[in-house]
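ok so for the tutorial part 2 we go from a plain amino acid sequence to predicted structure tokens. step 1 is just haveing the sequence, like this:
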Amino acid sequence: MRDLTIRLQNRPGALAAMGETLGRAGVSVEGGGGWVVEGQAIMHFLFEDGVAARSALEAAGIEVLSDREVLVQKLDQETPGQLGKIGRAMSDRGVNIDTVYSDHANQLVLVVDDVATGREVSEAWNAERASKLKGREHNYRVSMKWIGNTGTGTESYRGYARDHELSVPGKPMIAGSSDPTFRGNKARWNPEELLVASLSACHQLAYLHECADNGVVVTAYEDHAGGVMRESAGGGGRLERVVLRPTVTITDPAKRELALALHTRAHALCFIAASVNFPVECEPSVASG
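step 2 — the prediction. this is what the tokens look like for a chain of 289 residues:
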């Protein structure tokens, strides 16, 4: 990736003319920003093809002051102090950061005076971050209470209710039961529905994250998921497959194919889908609006 420093006239329409020039050349801007410094409009824009961008701009009489390699770094946006930490790491190695901004995938773009040393710092940062994330453990605790004792306990198969309550401190209680086929209460959630719901919700959360990282603006998401369970001899059974059918609404129709493709990435990142031993299929659709 290349950062081009561009000087524009400080007048209405200068930025529009630059954007139109790049558009006609088929060159996409991946990130950047601009500032007025001492009456001059100085732009820093990120390009995957710096040569094509520079050629198009200079052919249109737009001045390119510099063309520099950049460092692109993914930060943990949920953790405060990330910018300060990587900035200090650069400073400790004598690397000066000339320009900093974000690209369309919310990655940090650094233009530095010593690219080779800066790359070493960046790679060390990635290695440390990967080491911390690898094997990181998360614990989840849920309380379950059976409330189906009608007075005689489990004295007979038909003599007790399957109703139960699932709870986590500080959250609304989930009213559970079994599937009505197995003498459950149809007004309550059964375990099979909860598992399908978990897969649907997990996929949705992973998908929205991927869209945010890849510049796809989603304004609505709805899924009508279904699961198939087959009983086996002896009273057992198992879920054989779950099919997710998400309908997504995006703002830019030109990004429809990308929006569809990101479902594959979301499936690979879904913790719940990775934890089950049956197929989880996805039949997505995308609309614009």
